[in-house]
Amino acid sequence: MNNEAVPLHPAEAVDTFACCLLHPCHRSPQPRPMSDDLFDTIVSLSKQRGFIVQSSEIYGGLSATYDYGPMGVELKRNVKEKWWQSMVYQNDDIVGLDASIMMHPKTWDASGHTEAFNDPLIDDKASGNRYRADELIENYIRALREEGEEAHAEAVRERLVEALNAGEEMNDALHAIIMDEEIPAPESGAFDWTDVRQFNLMFETEMGPVDGQKVFLRPETAQGIFVNFHNAREPARLHVPFGVAQIGKAFRNEIVARQFVFRMREFEQMEMQYFVKPGTELDWYEQWKERRMKWHESLGIDPSNLRFHEHDQLSHYANAAVDIQYDFPIGWKELEGIHSRTDYDLSRHEEYSGKKMSYYDPWEEERYTPYVVETSTGLDRTLFMVLCDAYYEEEVKGDTRSVLQFHPEVAPVRAGIFPLTDKEGLPDIAREIEDDLNQHFNVRYDDRGSMGKRYRRQDEAGTPFCITVDFDTLDDQTVTVRDRDTMEQDRVAIDQLATYIFDQTANWEASA
Ligand code: GAP
């Protein structure tokens, strides 16, 4: 079963709608659009402002695959960089890795993906549309709650949890709920279902020109770390406890993928496997939970939009697991999983490869197979969160100001640079400032339109600082720096600009 198919909690179902109807949204000083609008707003501004667009759009798009435009790619690089710094550069017991997307097929037998990385699929015979049976039921429960049928909703939820834990009986149990509750197909309204069957989410392809070997596009990056346990540890001369971090593409043939970059068929993961001595794993698990929550907050995310969500049922190989959830416009949903995975993965790879995957502790003079604490987050989902959390609109002098209040460290453009006019050499000075500052971070020169328009453009792009070269600059070599969030302006010497921006970045806090 795909790890994400978690049964719906009563709290979750309520939150989804509370979020849409009650919650004027997050941190911003002015009310944002209600959350059901927020989803559409983020999708449309992502396209208009060059963050994210559907893949192959000119051909009508390829479902659940997305491309990052000029702004999106910078945001993505900055978030990756921040993760990498916090994992690899700031921990001398963690090293990086970049494993290939295609791995030996036995990897997936060992990991259990060939046999069990499945979602329950059901077809509407009338329309031919396919659905995830568990999601159909979750949506039905949500609808019951909206109609105030709390007891009925709770009874169906209990059946769903039972069905998802029914092992080989799962398909029949899910089908029975759909039949008993007479759940119609969402699009056609028909009640004409096939049986439920398991659908493996891995993408297959063939390697080599003739009668190629069947290989899979990896559904998670983690296995690249497990199979490289020795290759990462030995050259880096690391001893347990230590970690290996990786950022890379993963692929899942999701049955339902209509949630923008929340659920994609090709996406990027940022994963870290921390190898520990058996018996110490739950202490490490607690530490990583807290550290990962702090990291999300360090992106400038409002802490009240983040929470831990304990798993109802643990996978057979895990002895602890929690999700960090974010209050997305589609409800509280998983952003990151933190799992204590015991020695399951290393032991399975030892069994399937015949190679020893254990570790010899030279101080304790003992050999053991390390346990693993995993932190696994989706980069695209993180960006979706950053966009949702940053967006707000406010009235300024009768105009609507639309802002992306990104943390300056992740903002696609750190500073806009404007000459007040094209006279008296102001553009030349602005260009010199650009050449100096772009050694440190991404900046944008802009001389088009009124100052007001230039500020609004940068507010929409989430640029935290705007530098204006004006006539006073000619006398005193200072410029105006305008703060995106407060719209206040400081006068700063040109030769102090980089330091000023670094200081402001280090001290930045989202305005409350
Ligand atoms: N190695 C563990 C693992 O892959 P997971 O919960 O299946 O665990 C980890 O995935 C994270 O990857 C999720 O928390 C989510 O952020 C991201 N993710 C998973 N499936 C995704 C999808 N279809 N689209 C975008 N992100 C996804």
From TrEMBL:
Do you know which Gene3D superfamilies this protein is assigned to?
3.30.40.230, Anticodon-binding domain (3.40.50.800), Bira Bifunctional Protein, Domain 2 (3.30.930.10)
The reaction(s) annotated as catalysed by this protein in its Swiss-Prot or TrEMBL entry are: tRNA(Gly) + glycine + ATP = glycyl-tRNA(Gly) + AMP + diphosphate
GO CC terms? cytoplasm; extracellular exosome; microvesicle
Tell me where in this chain the Aminoacyl-transfer RNA synthetases class-II family profile domain is found.
Answer: 155-419
Keywords from the UniProt entry: Aminoacyl-tRNA synthetase, ATP-binding, Cytoplasm, Ligase, Nucleotide-binding, Protein biosynthesis
Top-level EC class: ligase
Q: Name one Pfam family in it.
A: tRNA-synt_2b
Task: State the source organism's domain of life.
Answer: Bacteria
Please report which protein family the annotation says this sequence is part of: Belongs to the class-II aminoacyl-tRNA synthetase family.
Function text: Catalyzes the attachment of glycine to tRNA(Gly).
What is the protein name stated in its UniProt record?
Glycine--tRNA ligase
The organism that produces this protein has a lineage beginning with: Bacteria, Pseudomonadati, Rhodothermota, Rhodothermia, Rhodothermales
